[in-house]
Records
---
Amino acid sequence: MLYPQRLGQFTREHADTVAAVLCGLLLFLGWFALHFGALELALLLLPAAYVIGGYESAREGLTTLFKEKELDVDLLMIVAAIGAASLGLWRREYHLIIDGAILILIFAISGALEGYAMQRTERSIRSLMSLTPDTARVLHQGREEEIPISQLKVGDEIAVKPGELIPTDGIILSGYSTLNQAAITGESLPVEKTVGAEVFAGTLNGYGALQIKVHKPAQSSLIQRVIRLVEQAQTEAPPSQEFIDRFEKGYAKIIVVAGILLATLPPFLWGWDWETTIYRALTFLVVASPCALMAAIMPTLLSGIANGARQGILFKNGAQLEKISKVRAIAFDKTGTLTTGQVQVFQVFSVSEYTRDDVLKTAASVESSSEHPIGKAIVQAAGDLNWVGAIEVQAIPGQGIVGIAQEQQIIVGNAVFVQKYVTNLPEELREIVQSLEQEGKTVVWVAKNPTPNPSPQARRGAGFEVMGVIAIADEVRLQAAATITRLKKLGVEQIVMLTGDNQETAHSVAKSVGIDRVYAQLLPEDKLDVIRRLQQEYQTVAMVGDGINDAPALAQASVGIAMGVSGSDVALETADIVLMADKLEKIAVAIHLGRRSQLIVKQNIVVALGFILLLLVGNFLGNINLPIGVIGHEGSTVLVTLSGLRLLK
């Protein structure tokens, strides 16, 4: 019973190939019968070859004709083949029936080859959809229960064993492992993950067992968003393809009118016989059809989309692959784009009687009770040191924090706040702080009262002394400077930075990455205005951002590029291109991919038009017959399609 099932499955999956093989077999048998004078058998076998090989093309052509009231190149091929057969029957020159059957066969083979070629692109894209398992093991009252992914809820805890795929996005509750994220982010090397780190559905767990907490619905996971966007990209035609589609509809009508004129006028104008006239008119229908031109664009762009997805660059549609190649100016958001968006301790300075570690331990004791990003950065920096958490901690928003640790009152905050407790700030630290702030760093002062006095009501200014200062900075992405240099080498004329931050911080970051033009202290609508001004000057402008405040500028830009990991949902939905691994260097890769795709498209168009022109001249000079015309026409179509698939590499 399995054999018929497998045969049926094979036939469904390779229907075009099976039809082409049967058509070829019937054509050969028909030619063989005709050669040995078995005319009746030949006239039985050859029509069967026509029906089997041309059914799909005829169906598509007639559907387009009756539903859309448009002529289709598939229908023109069928008309040419039937015309050749009719001419053969009329003149009793049965070799013309063979010519028509050869046309059908080559057209069927071409369709099968194009189908296989396009399947390579589709397989690359469909592989995304098999990246997640169907079920997950949920931990419930100490037991594991396997449930479908669709039934997972936020807050569920799931277990992932070594070597398994992560079923959904989540946060690691316990365990340590390395994860292969290549399928999602394009990173070639495994990434170490431990408690508190976010993991993504579709990534491959390494050697460690993990316990993960679901923190977003399964359908909102990064991989599911990627799948939806890629599916959308496959269905949306870029402007160049839309132009070719419109051109094809008008061109097909011109071919039909020209074919009718060629089939009727030459006997009266040049004295051709009717057989030659009709035969050349049928050949004209074949060689003038724009099949190769129709295949010049979409295979290339779909291959580019698949290539980008493998490298962690998600193009939402082919139009963006076209536009990115023409970008002349790029605007970068600062926080979360050029920088990681995660503040960290940059430097620690202490007065002579204290060490750097003393300052960090003291600050961490009170900041451990804070949810502020600066507090978290200080605690992280002091992670390996031996410190004790403070009690009676009180945070004063925008100023600082106070608390008691080891019977000593501690204050951490800005200079204005600390001066409420300390009479004079050390002069040597004042100069250092001034220099740090000019570089765009945020500075917090650390002071304590060394006199044992746990009372929070201790008189201010009595016994407090400054221990040191801690400089906090938003870390610039390691690849940011190299990316800017690469973009300039690619010929991007203008690179600017947009930020809501102050001028000092903005210019400090811009200088470190090599950006000369800076717009600081911007609101979301201000960023939008800057993009509009850039578009007036440079036409095609890209915007790179990650936050909700970047969404208006991303939407306005010719090409909006969002950071996939750190980006907000609004930014991801608004952007045209998503960098799945937050790797800025992928912008240069995307531009190169876009330019290469446009070069291949232009090459394909030249080849397609060149073949059409060559075949038309050959037909009018009488140097080609119908089968040769078909081979030239279909060969150019296959050649152009395979050329587009070069972008898969």
---
Amino acid sequence: MSAEATNPEAHPEARPELRRRGRTRLDLRRLGRAALLGPTSRDRLPDAIGHVAEAHRAHHPDADLSILRRAYLLAETSHRGQMRKSGEPYITHPLAVTLILAELGAETTTLTASLLHDTVEDTDVTLDQVRAEFGDEVCFIVDGVTKVEKIDYGAAAEPETFRKMLVATGNDVRVMSIKLADRLHNMRTLGVMRPEKQARIAKVTRDVLIPLAERLGVQALKTELEDLVFAILHPEEYESTRALIAAHAGERDPLPAIADSVRGVLRDAGIAAEVQVRPRHFVSVHRIARTRGELRGSDFGRILVLVGENADCYAVLGEMHTCFTPVISEFKDFIATPKFNLYQSLHTAVATPEGYVAEVIVRTRQMHRVAEAGVVALGNPYATATPDAAATDPDEERVDPTRPGWLSRLLDWQQSAPDPDTFWTVLRAELAQDREITVFRDDGSATGTISLPAGASCIDAAYAQHGEAAHGCIGARVNGRLTSLSSPLSDGDTVQLLLAQDASSGPAAEWLDHARTPAARIAISSWLEAHPDRAMATTSAARAPLSVVGARGGGGNAVADLPDATVRLAGCCTPVPPDAVAGFLVRGGAVTVHRIHCAAVAQMRAVGRTSVAVHWRATADCRVTLLAESFGRPHLLADLTEAIAREGVEVVSATVEPPVEQRVRHSYTLQLPDAAGLPALMRAMRDVPGVYDVSRV
């Protein structure tokens, strides 16, 4: 346990007068920065549980501290005689983990479980003892952390380790909170291990735990973990960044003066606000240096403005943009549209008369708590549950009102991952997604929402809503418009997914090119592997259009005022009674008949074709060509032909084009016994499942 984590006098935030002004007792970023900038002397371990209690009371003034002291006594006696590789008593580890969580504002149950999180794994203490002494809730969390810790962290075991970690997190998000704090303290003391083991642990932390901390909104842990990983995996870049920060420390920092100007502006406007200068952490400075090149003094930190209410945030923004020159391209409103990890703030940047550009973050104090501590700041998400909810069934998943959509998706698809390697690969890809969208579903009976990663398509929405039943999806309507399944979705879209009635329908291989979510990709791949013949059929080369030709007639019941002339109904517009028509003499002495509004009529007149008067016979029969557009599925041609036959209509010819993105076009030339039956015929064809439009050619 580092001296920085146990010595409150080392940080001005620990002073009571500052705590009364609403500041956090200890700044975890500053602790991490102090640890990175250089070692400190190891002093005698102070009354650490006293510091945990003090930190806890700062966030929860009415908390019962007796349970923490009892947990400390059990942990200290159980771990007595055990030592860490660093040479410190083992009890320093659970104490350090608990202090980290206490500073983030974790509630009493989480801190109690944190003190005991290694007792069941590393000592003779049993879960029954924990339950008898501290209750079902603490026992549930300790059991979840223990299940995660029991797995070997060898390279081959890592996928299964994190699979179990996700399941434990899904049952109680506080399990992951303890795990993240546990990894942070281990990373702080990683120097006692061999370099190759340091690198391996740092890579796992980078690939999975840091993204999980980001997803859970625990920025205070995430940024320090980033810096510690940066120092291990990229020592040269880290040293150059460290030198850059050290050089800046000896120069004049313009940010305090800018902060004073902001305070004056807000004071004159009558807005009660607290203005702070927030130094960037190492990785942030490194990223800024790579994108901006040479850094100026204002690039090493940001201005943080804390206010009381949401409306005050926008009032501050108005004053900032009025009294300073705003950099509009830097403005982002995460209050109106929060990030998927609960984060809310206004981001902007302003230019000063001296030429500095300062980034400004505006948020309420509650937003600040959530921005720093994420789910840890939400307290006990199961407080409304029955007291013995955890004991009813340890393996049953509990309902968590704070569970983010991405976590639910992970819990769903991890059960279907066919092997650890697939799970590990897909997990890292899923965690790399840094944005999330919400779409509204409209299935005709109920309307709800679906959370998806940015870039997701209708295919992803289908599997998120229908699971394996999405294999039979034949199309979608997005915001009321028909679209292909490959169409990407945007935040706020309304999606209606169309499923085939045929249970044998299955996905096409090209769906994998447009699926972004692990659940969709795993389900599609599994189906294609189970149906290799169908998979080959969907990926075969495009076929020529299928044509079915019957006896062809000529002009139907159209008559030209030209003796012995052959009359033909134009295929471009397929006129039928009682359409207004026009006839033109073409090569061979034939007369072609067009609907009067057909584009070909103007062309015929333009090239000087002889116009011939035509009229309809008194008979009611007619010939027409219809175009049916549909989503591809088995037996579609047979169903359409049957619907046409039920209307008593003869098929003269039919052409089926090869499917494109699951869409198929059917052209039918039909002989109707009565032209008045055409509207009913078109309705009958539209009623065939999968058909979304029928029109005259």
---
Amino acid sequence: MKSSDAKQPIAEKQPAKLEKHNDVRIDNYFWMRLSDEQKLSEVKDEQTQKVIEYLEAENTYYDKITDFSKTFQEELFEEMKGRIKEDDSSVPYKKNGYYYITRFEIGSQYPIYSRKKGDLNAEEQVIFNVNEFAKGFDYYQLGGLNISSDNKLAVFATDTVSRRQYFLRIKNLETGEIYKDIIDNTTGGSVWANDNKTFFYTKKNPVTLRSEKIFRHVLGTPTSEDVEVYHEKDETFGTYVTKSKSEKYIIIGSYSTLSTEAQYLDADNPTGEFTMLQEREKDLEYNVAHYKDHFYLLTNKDNATNFKLMKTSVAKTSKENWVDVIPHREDTLLEDFSIFKDYLVLEERTNGLNKIRIKRWDETEDYYLPFDEETYSANVYGNPEFDTDVIRYSYNSFTTPSSVIDFNMDDKSKNIKKEQEVLGGKFKKENYKSERIWATARDGKKVAISLVYHKDTKLNENTPLLQYAYGSYGYTIPDSFSTTRLSLLDRGFVYALAHIRGSEYLGRNWYDDGKMLNKKNTFYDFIDCSKFLIDQKYTSAKHLYAMGGSAGGLLMGAIVNMNPELYNGIIAAVPFVDVISTMLDDSIPLTTGEYDEWGNPNEKEYYDYIKSYSPYDQVEAKDYPNMLITTGFHDSQVQYWEPAKWIAKLRELKTDNNLLMLHTNLEAGHGGASGRFEALKETAKDYTFFLALENKLEI
């Protein structure tokens, strides 16, 4: 079907005047915003009905445009599904006398959580078969599984809307009974005290969804009598509760983008008062772990931009008592650490690459695990046991399927517990190539691009290339293996991951240089990487595609406003594109906690800067590339109305005949579909968009 044969939905205009700092913006599509009550109400008012009808019209348009490719989509889905071992299971991990296993059965969408007592030959006890729980729900997520130290009770969390507002319930693992008590509107996390009858949990603000209160629940008492033990009143902070690996302390953490704070309580005394470890200070961050008589702190204290490890006596915890354990290094980012009885394990990043460092407490050994690929991803994996010489870590790369490896830190022996199976009989690691190249950004900074492609793919101006990035919150996208990506690589695509500023790929400064009043560096880096790939004849503008989601969707919106001529097709998934309006509205979930990332537009300097790149505000009358925009109606991270308004404005102003489509999952939120196969169907839709454009099919 030709796109001209399908009628494009044209959204109604209802001009709304938005004024700030004497600047007036006219938002013709402000009416698309619905409250949670409107979305969830069984009786739809006129506005709600109008919004849903518009979203459904966009879905119908998408279906008509892509109808010709439905058979191919299904084939692609079956191809990707065929690489997955359906009856798969995780590597068992041991905790408190039990081995815990997550497994899937053939044909099932959801996992089964089970355990075995003592050894792996023991009888399996199924804790949760999520497939049974999910019956009758369009979306179902079970998480937050937390088992009491006597192994008899489990707290678990469920979300059936995909808004990340979890219900907490309790299951008796001896009798199988699920208690009637339900705690609503939580983050999903919980922590047992050592008495096996008390647990702590975090409640969200019902409007903003900010995690703001810690409560204590005692078994056998009504949830209405739960005690509020902490209220985080600063709207730019969230809070959480956790337990030290030593099982000694319950810890309440408070966090913003640039500041943290921790309080602790003896886990044997759950009704006691929490003690402040170190009061919050602007730009002071620290994460805490416990070992013997000390707290260990991953912190940026003393201008340690790339973080360092410090310790302090449990008896004296304020910052003047902290002493260095692993000093700050200019060339190495200290990302995390794990404490074992005889060993300290450090996760570091140097020149963009992960490193795992192992150091004995008695200082007789200090060494790095060897990794020899040009680009890869390696991470310490779980490790709930404290008194062990074995560390578990994961390793994979663009060409190496994921492995779970047990490494004996004492004798340095390695045991590969599991390597991801790629079924179908076609995958061979040696058929793919990966490399890392460096583009020069407009300000002279070197930006890494990780590439992977089939060995038979010829690299020239006719080669299709998909460029991906995120570039926000300091999150670094790993160079990891993907079975679904093979469907693109086997059809001649190159996949390029651009490690742009806004991540921490090259350390904390790399993040700082891509946020707040430096945010445009994120967009410039991506564009400059695109130009580099074109200049070096890896591809050309006719064959270059780009994709990003959430804050990466903002990236997509920015680059198509700045340099639309560089790309043949774009997918913006759950895109954060109405930045200025969202950041001015502190009733929208999670807004106030974002000020340290984007800036607070209530201040004119930030207002002007954000507006200068906000994709929705910068849409112009000009040509845009082919675009597919996706969203979830119940998304709590990026509200559905941002992409809905964006596409309406693009349709109004763009001057080309290229494709412009919006697909809304009316049942899902930020993460998309919940079942493992439903998620594959969404990937098949995305890949079909790129493949259809590249093969110049009639769309």
---
Amino acid sequence: MDYLESSLPLTQQPLFMLSGDAIVLLGSNGKIIQLNAECSRLPGLNSKDWLGCTFESLLDKENGHTFATHFQGALRGLASNLEVEFPERGGQVTELQLRLIPVDSDGQLFIYVVLKDVTDQKRALQLIEHMAYHDTLTGLPNRTMFQIQLTQMISASLGSSEEDQFAILLLDLERFQMVNDLLGPNLADLLLKQVGERLQLLVGFDCTVSRLGNHEFAVLFSRFGDSAEIVEKARSIHEQLMVPFLVRDREIVIVGSIGLAFYPQDGTDMNGLLLHAANVQAMEKEYGEGVYRLQQGDFGANARLRLELEHDLRKALEREEFELYYQPQYDIQRNELMGAEALIRWHHPKHGMVSPAQFIPLAEETGLIVPIGEWVLRTACRQNKQWQRAGFLHLSISVNLSLRQFQKHNLIGDITQILKETELESKFLELEITESMAMDNVERVIRKLNELKDLGIRISMDDFGTGYSSLQYLRRLPLHKLKIDQSFIRDINHDADSAAIVSTIIAMANHLRLEVVAEGVETAQDLQFLLLQDCRHAQGYHFSKPLPAMEFERLLNEGGELLSPFYVQP
């Protein structure tokens, strides 16, 4: 049998007298006959008033019903465990763990009820569970909870009608890091809390607002009549977020970029929906307000293509799918071919020639630009050395450095090793950096450029005029050459401002004893203007498009003099 038998009086048995747990003795009618001394130590409970009461009557209706079920089992001789909430005075609740033990005494059945206070334990577990699924700063559900809820909504929607669609909204606070840097982390945290509160008020409490990361939030829209309703809600959120936040007497304006995805139109699983929303968000950042949702067909194809290109890009080097093209650079005053700029091309086995505009940003994002850049540098140096051995002794090669390459700790060592491997003299290598790279950390940039200069490598600043370089720093940078951005060259013959900018850059460079290369020269009129302004070097489609190595070598063998048909002596 499950119940106990003993010849001792029930209230004198060791289980009752010596237990460190509170114990209540019940008769078969459910009324409390006796309590041991530990009952008086239960926090918040007046156990002295319990005698003569049924234990069930001390509980609320739901917990009383649960206890009654277990008590009926005890009357049948079954021991059992349960947990109940015991109401205290003042509205507090004590969590009790109960163990019901039936006892036979001289043919009569009694029930021991062992009580254990587990309130602190339960609250600690609830706190741990809350912390696991909620953001500690804002109190909002975190990324884990968001993904659980999203997965549950997808599972609940499988096989249902399209009327049961739902939507997710991703929100990223732009320039938040700047706010953090300016105001400090404490005020930035207060701002994040206010953003979370405002979002919840804007979407209502029928929708779930989550904080996914530092300055990333998400909203789950579970019920709505039409997708247009959610798009308008997104527009409203975008506008209302720009209403200034008041953080300790400071007014802070923050802008959010938004991406929406609808189930099932934009994805039928969590990854598909999140990818769609994230890419719409990226489009919002690039093109501005209004791009909240792209057409499903176009967007799905673009997203898949992006993932495919990223995967294939990782294999492209080992599969030898890259090729360098070379665009001739001319000394237009002497009508001489003086060098070439190396430009990478990707022969994709499925998509054919992939534009650098597509894969270079992807390579930058993924970090693949570093090994790709090293391959470009090594290949260009090796090719130039081959041309020199073929008799073109003074040809220089120009290679663009990416920001990640330039920031690499061992850049100087890598370049030195490549020059040693290819046996190219350093004076025939020219490295191009952009204005934004030069201004990233000026003192560090100056040190690194001086190291390159000490090796005998020439340095040019690419796309000059489009950045924000200071003349003070420009004077200090160890540059040999400025390359005027083609956007100015393109308009010099019909836009007075562009013409003035180009003339000024050429004059300034000449005074600073810097060489100038005009990029994007496309017409004889462009060339004539540059000659009149005393510009020395140029490149562009007027002379030649970028050429594969064999075609460029053919140009070298023909003498490279392509200017005479276009040049008119002023």
